[in-house]
């Protein structure tokens, strides 16, 4: 069995510890990987620092654009392998893994364009006095990537970091070690990348991530994960005033008004809680239905959730794969048991304990109607296929309920009244809001959280700002002298 390696300072590396990757659909070992430790993180950080300080990477946007385009080509050449391995390691369906693999190259190409298109500004602020604004890379960036969408979330952070001119250390999760190795192969094959510009470590623990946050050689941290961990990272990074961008937890409300078409919207609601088995920061884990039509929606959603076809990720007929491991099955099941004590169980769901799927980490979707909004079912991110069914009286009540948590990552509004849709969009406190849809994302538009769902923005032109400083230069023409000038403000 081949043991996949780490990519550090332009060469393959290994650690003294070996881990195994498990297929959550079967519980079987897929392969082995070298598990990064603190020593490997130190080497990777030092390599990234040297590359930033002693190569032309930070100064040559043409080089950066060329490297991003080449890396996109290398990933594209590995599309089928990435789909297969991502599905087997994460348990997401072939359709979900295919979405990741087919969109990742485009994300990098979009950022190649940003690398070339970004401009500063200049103006004559007084006669003979010129102001110049330029964007400069902040330095070394540490990217801490979660397991639920390893390829998509890696390139979402890596693209703008490289376009901005940073060098990078990527800390990838152990659950997707073999997928990570394919990404590392693409990096190793990208000849335009100078040595040390991108380093990739797979780690099962947190020593590498902790060092990235603590090291004075690292200038920025990009993290996607839980709100709890994000707060710990922000607190530790504050000791050195390190730049931090965080995309954290979510509790996405899907607001369904009485004029929404149940035939077209109900499948979207079901997809929103079953895609990636609910292990998605933007999962539609709350459905808010107008009270006048609630009975029909309860019945329809219950029937559809009970009919969801569970199966191995590599089976095209599977509508939902497993959770990432059996520990999470036990965790989610305990959550549902507790919720049954304070809510009305509409669909119990639960672990698959019999048949061919029992060896995997499968969990059938659940739907519970809570007694009020202050309960854990509504207030906590579950990260599993558990839907909270809530009702509202009118538009004002819908907005109140939608804003009733500490999260603000995303929301959806379903109505045929577009004036009402825009009123509700303005009133809901969330970074991304869909009208009559869910989970459509674009590299051209920013995403990120309000409230405790994060800091900063991914995608869009604003994503480069997470990895850059802005420098102002005031230049006085020699013929105008060099002293202070009145009226310069």
TrEMBL record:
This is Aldehyde dehydrogenase family protein. SUPFAM superfamilies: ALDH-like. Belongs to the aldehyde dehydrogenase family. Residues 20-472 form the Aldehyde dehydrogenase domain. It comes from Paraburkholderia pallida. Keywords: Oxidoreductase. GO terms for molecular function: oxidoreductase activity, acting on the aldehyde or oxo group of donors, NAD or NADP as acceptor. It holds the Pfam family Aldedh. InterPro entries: Ald_DH/histidinol_DH, Ald_DH_C, Ald_DH_N, Aldehyde_DH_dom.
